[in-house]
Amino acid sequence: MTAAALAARVRTDLRNPLFLQGYALMANTGITAVLGLGYWMLASRLYSPEAFGEGQALISAMRLFSSLTGLALAGVLARFIPVAGRRTGELIVRGYLLAGLAGLAAALGFLLTLPLWGPAYARLDGLVPGLLFLGSVLVWTVFTLQDVALTGLRSAILVPVNSLLYGLVKMALLAGLAAGLPETGVFTSWIVPTAIALIPVNWYIFRRLLPRAAARDTEPPTTAQIGRFLAGDVPGALSALLIVFLVPVLVAVWLGDARLFGYFCVAHTLGCMIALLPANMGISLTVEGALDPGHLARKTRSALRRAFAVVGPVVALVFAAAPLILRPFGAELAEHGAPLLRLMALAVLPATVIEIHLSTLRALRAARRLAAVQIGLAVLVLGAVSLAFPIWGMAGVGYAILASQLLVAALVVRHLRGHMTKH
């Protein structure tokens, strides 16, 4: 395809809300990955290896509790915000409250059992550090869900703009705190801009976007309908998110070495960023499928093709250049992290099939099947990681994820093909 033909196709795609939203979220992933790489590279230069690894551990724990509860509700919000009509504001507020309270409860349990989690989290011991950690969990929970709210309101184009500004401020603060807070500057620079970003984004959601959504001529879903979907989707989503957020916490405990954990986290975070690409297109498919269920099969075919068109070249590039991508962090990190990054990049190919299948199930409100696929994948990954890590170390995490994704993709591809050929 020539450059002119590619440009023409992109212009055509941008007139389609399915692709516009999907590309915006994919661009957000790219911006987040690039700025995240710059952030951690800067942190590795400005902070000691111990402070670098400890900051990674604290951020991993915070994201575990906030993202598990927040992202578990993401599918529910993406499915119902587009059709909630006059109840849209109520749905978003309840989502924020439910996820926030659940995240706080989980984080409180973590703090009360802190001695069980090893020296990596010793800094959280005490009333003040514990309260600050709980506050950070609440902030990150809302920060996570506001992007889903923007997408459900068909304003995902604002998500990468917010991420760009947030990432730049975060890097500037990281550098500014290096001298004054050499031990806690990494975590502080992460959470303070997050709290600030909540104000303008949610003002725009509730003051500008909600009036338009409330005026939409749709029949709002009943509490019973949302509850039934919630009961089926959330357990599965929680299980799937354990793959992303529990694995680093477990590795921190198994390694017991802040320096090595820092190496693991850089490669693992980049691998998870790549895995977000098909998930981004999937969120857009859920939103557009909810608005226009009659054309879901066609939209699913289109979303799958576009997802692979983006994911394929990215996976090939990362697989070939993994050591070069990690080289700015030092030769030792590139040596330890490149095998993990390559394996996680390869795993995104079967994950693309799984993500599009899950998004189709959300649009169809097939919550039980959603839960079955996600819980099964989580059990496979966590079990395989537990077996592979003692043998291959960091790379074992990559082998476990790749093998599990390939198996589940092989199991769901027939069902996905059936969805795509119904109309």
Q: If you compute it from the alpha carbons, what radius of gyration comes out, rounded to the nearest whole angstrom? A: 21 Å
Question: What is the helix/strand order?
Answer: HHHHHHHHHHHHHH
| Oligomeric state, counting identical vs distinct chains | single chain
Mean pLDDT: 87
Structural class: mainly alpha
Low-confidence sequence ranges:
none
| Total number of helices | 14
Helix percent band: over 70%
> Could you say which overall geometry the principal axes of the C-alpha atoms support?
globular
Roughly how many Å apart are the termini? 29 Å
Strand content: under 5%
Largest sheet: none
Considering the chains and any ligands shown, give keywords for the structure.
about 425 residues; mainly alpha; 14 helices; about 0% strand
In short:
This protein has 423 residues and is mostly helical. It has helices spanning 3-13, 17-46, 49-72, 74-80, 88-112, 127-152, 158-177, 185-214, 223-255, 258-291, 296-326, 331-363, 367-392, 394-420.
Chart the SSEs and their pairings.
Layout: H1 3-13, H2 17-46, H3 49-72, H4 74-80, H5 88-112, H6 127-152, H7 158-177, H8 185-214, H9 223-255, H10 258-291, H11 296-326, H12 331-363, H13 367-392, H14 394-420
Helix pairs in contact: 2-7, 2-10, 3-5, 3-6, 3-8, 3-9, 3-10, 4-6, 4-10, 5-6, 6-8, 7-8, 9-10, 9-13, 10-11, 10-12, 11-12, 12-14, 13-14
Structure description:
With 423 residues, the protein is mainly α. It has one domain (3-420). It has 14 helices and no strands. Helix 13 (367-392) runs antiparallel to helix 14 (394-420). The radius of gyration is 21 Å and the shape is globular. The chain starts with a helix and ends with a helix.
